[in-house]
Amino acid sequence: MTLAELLEKFAGTGIHGDESVKISALTCDSRQVLPGTLFFALRGTKADGHRFIEKAAAAGAAAVVLEDASYAPDGIPWVRVADGRAAMGRIAALFNGDPTAGRPLVGITGTNGKTTTTYLIEAILGAAGIPAAVLGTISYRFDTSVIAASHTTPESTELQSAFRQLAEAGAQAFVMEVSSHALEQKRVDGCHFDVGVFSNLTRDHLDYHVTMESYLQAKQRLFSELLRPSHEKPQRRAAINMDDPYGTAIAACCSCPVITYGIRGECDVRPTNIVSSVNGISGTLLTPKGSFKFSSQLLGSFNLSNILAATTAGIGLDLPLESIKSGIENHTTIPGRMQRVENDRGITCLVDYAHTGDALENVLATLKEIATGRIITVFGCGGDRDNGKRPIMGRIAAGMSDLAIVTSDNPRTEPPLKILEQIKAGILELPPRPQGEGRAEGRVREYRLEELTGGFSRKGFVMLENRRDAIRLAVRLAQPGDIILLAGKGHEDYQIIGTTKHHFDDREEATAAFTEKTD
Cα–Cα–Cα angle for 124, 130, 135, nearest 5°? Predict the structure, then answer.
């Protein structure tokens, strides 16, 4: 493909130099430039890509897209654009054959629930006879084709290449998680969305966004800009969770028709006659297309919200109610989302990705509803990330569990004990718990490890830096009927210590711990 052919459909560009040069690859990383590459000089938070144009040219770049003409290279063609990131997204789509222009694309954004919702929508599309690919936190996958996920939403060049590969593998639709980083950094520009889903907005990523208002604005961009009806997609829809306090603000900014959903209130899609138990959720869903009864093996009100989100997306795609019902009922397991670890001890052991205060609270609230014994929670917080949520998660975990084992998550370059102490600060803010008539149990007890040799009888917490040891402690202390929640890492099969990834899987560790216990 020549530079002129690539940019033929990209309005507002002027090619300076030989427009007949062949383009064989795209990148914004000068270290990845090979002969024939179109290099995008982007302004980043830490570095300005314009300063790497000469390096890219020396590596064989065929042409350069830039914002500042004062950096225009000698000897190779260049194109000036007003917004390099937006241009890269659109050009990347064109380079890969614009794979989302002629196929349904659903984007889910929100702090929690994105992954579960993508799996449910995938199942609904499959039930409608539309094989769909999923691009998310865990992977980019279709059937047996799997592309490793470097980010929840990768750079537009990588994303559009993934769309093309999945389409070539046979995908007829796409379902993707859309992160706030990707929206703000315009990585999804060039994507032709049919339906955008807003799940919720709770504290997360404030190390990047700084304020909740900035976080909200990043999410709003999907609905205000990228869902504006276009020639390729004239019938776009937004699915908005009105149970969330930010739902009204998201709905108000939408540039396309809105379909609301929620457990509470008179939403377009809402439930009735809901029964929730250890076996799952059942009831009736009311929609603009009619109502239907359903039964799902997923647990808890937060998963009911995810079911509503997926149903609303199906309504937005104008899929049959029979397909929506079938997709919801036939999908049972989501990696790292309330995933059971089987054992012969009569203990319910669940691995969940809950890594924000809201997600952890939702999971523990569900477990408290169905618990017949004690709840033991193993959790930590990631290093080099928003440290403001650490005491919040500490209060939630210790306040809603019988025993909270505070341990490492992905400490990265922070001292693990520093993270644990910040979590502990939140636990110590919990008020004394009343017990009986006029008697007080006092604050949540901090156990020393040696005190737990004979088990525990009083609500409390313990600090144990090594996550493998923390999981083994939970298994050792649990009794038949108890619930163990391993929170924070979910599907992840690694732990980042310093700058190194080490293989670590909560599911594997728990399985090994149960085996060791019975030996």
Answer: 75
Total residues belonging to the chain:
519
pLDDT for 349? 95
Radius of gyration of the chain (CA): 25
Q: Are 433 and 459 in contact (CB under 8 A)?
A: yes
The span from the CA of 37 to the CA of 63, in Å, is: 7
Q: Which CATH number fits domain 3-95: 3.40.50.10540, 3.30.70.1450, 3.30.420.10, 3.40.1390.10?
A: 3.40.1390.10
pLDDT value at position 202? 79
Q: How far is CA 490 from CA 112, 275, 336, 421, 455, in A?
A: 13, 26, 4, 23, 26
The span from the CA of 292 to the CA of 270, in Å, is 11
Q: Angle CA(261)–CA(264)–CA(265) in degrees, nearest 5?
A: 80
Tell me the residue type at 74: D
What is the CB neighbour count within 10 angstroms for residue 442?
11
Q: Which 3 state secondary structure label does DSSP give 300?
A: coil
Task: Name the pLDDT band for 172 (thresholds 50, 70, 90).
Answer: very high
* Contact by Cβ (8 Å): 125, 195: no
Angstrom distance (rounded) from CA 487 to CA 351 = 6
Residue that is written with structure tokens 């250890």 in the block? 278
Q: Where are the domains of the chain?
A: 3-95, 105-330, 339-433+442-518
d(CA 504, CA 486): 13
> Which whole number is the average pLDDT over 271-293?
93
Judge whether 380 and 406 are in contact, CB under 8 Å: yes
CB-based contact 501:456 (threshold 8 Å): no
Residue written as tokens 């992977």? 139
Torsion of CA 470, 474, 476, 481, to 10 degrees: -170
Paired residues of 377 in beta bridges: 404, 485
- Residue 223 to residue 250: CA distance in whole angstroms: 7
Distance CA 16, CA 50 (A): 16
DSSP run (H or E) holding 422: helix 416-427
488 contacts 405 by C-beta, under 8 angstroms: no
C-alpha to C-alpha distance for 394 and 427, rounded to whole angstroms:
5
**Per-residue pLDDT for 343 more than 70?**
yes
Give burial (CB, 10 Å; 0-12/13-18/19+) of 283. Answer: middle
Q: What is the CATH code for 339-433+442-518?
A: 3.90.190.20
d(CA 456, CA 469): 17
Report H helices in 128-277: 156-168, 180-184, 206-209, 212-224, 247-252
**What is the per-residue pLDDT across 65-99, written as a single tens digit (0 to 9) for each?**
999 999 999 999 999 999 999 999 999 999 999 99
Read off the tokens for 271: 């439930």
> In terms of CATH, what superfamily is 105-330?
Mur-like, catalytic domain (3.40.1190.10)
pTM of the predicted protein model: 0.79
